[in-house]
Amino acid sequence: TDVVILVTGDGDFIPAVEYLKWGLGRVVEVAAFGRTSSARLREAADHFYDIDEMPRVVFKVVNKRQKR
Question: 14-42 burial, b for 16+ CB within 10 Å, e for fewer?
Answer without folding.
Answer: eebbeebbeeeebebbbbbeeeebbeebb
